[in-house]
Structure formats: C-alpha cells, structure tokens
C-alpha cells in the first residue's frame, strides 16, 4: 500500500488519479479498522471524503465513505455521529437507487444492499439509544430491501426486524 501511495502522492495536488487516491485512503482506513486503530481509520476516511468534496455530492464514493465513517463511529459507540453519517448515506443511496431504476441491475443491487445494511445498523443504533420507534422505522426499511441482503444475514435480520416492529418497546 505504501508503494501505491508513492506513485499517487506526487500528483495529489491535482485531480489526477483521484479515484485511485480515494481507493487507497479507503483501503488504508479499512486496514486501520482491522487493527483497531480507530483514530487512524477516521483520518483516512475523512481525507477520502475531502478528496471528493468538489465533485458530485451523490457520487458512490462519497456515500460509501459516509457509510465507512458511520460504521467506524458505531463501533466506537459514538452513536450520534454514527447515526448522522449512516442517515446521510442511506438518503443518498435511496436517491441513487431510484435514479438508476431497473435499467442498471448491478447498481440497483449494490444500492439496495447498502440501504438494507445501513438501515440495519441504524436500527441497532436506535435500540442503543432506546428509541424503539426509530428502530422500527429503520427495520421497515430493512424489510423493504430484504431481497438485497446476503443469504448469511437475511433470516436473522428479517426475523429481528419483524420482532422489533411487532413489539416496539423493550
């Protein structure tokens, strides 16, 4: 990864290799997360977001970066920040999901999956904050997008969400 940065760094002041630099920062952030170095991961994710600040505000890279930050903050139990970033990412994912429609099944699948997983995280955050009504709303979104969930998560997410909606109190 450092060798890749050495190639990309000399042109970092322009927009040349922007996608590659973004990917490098996201990869480094993910590596830092894997090592439980949350402060380092946060810095990489924030730099990745800054890199794209002058581009399309609904770009897949921006929304993915917001999701990475939301996941980081959730892991750190910084629930307000996690909720803010995840909510922003879901809003943009939903906008992109509607925009691509059925004519782009691959993009639709990716956006639908991201909506389901980010909504699942938002439901868990809401439960941590004892907001059972919000947890139910987020679970409804998970159920609306359940066809996009991975097979390993589908049954447990759906069952937990159905239960949360039926019994909105602890």
Counting DSSP E segments of at least 2 residues, the number of strands comes to 0
State the order of secondary-structure elements, H for helix, E for strand. HHHHHHHH
Measured distance between first and last alpha carbons = 46 Å
Secondary structure: helix percent: over 70%
Poorly predicted regions: none
Broad shape = globular
- Count of runs of 4 or more consecutive helical residues: 8
- Which structural class do you get from the secondary structure elements? mainly alpha
Strand % is under 5%
The largest β sheet comes out as: none
Rg calc: 17 Å
Mean pLDDT rating? 89
Structural topology:
Layout: H1 2-8, H2 18-34, H3 38-51, H4 60-75, H5 79-100, H6 105-128, H7 132-144, H8 151-166
Helix pairs in contact: 2-3, 2-4, 3-4, 4-5, 5-6, 6-7, 7-8
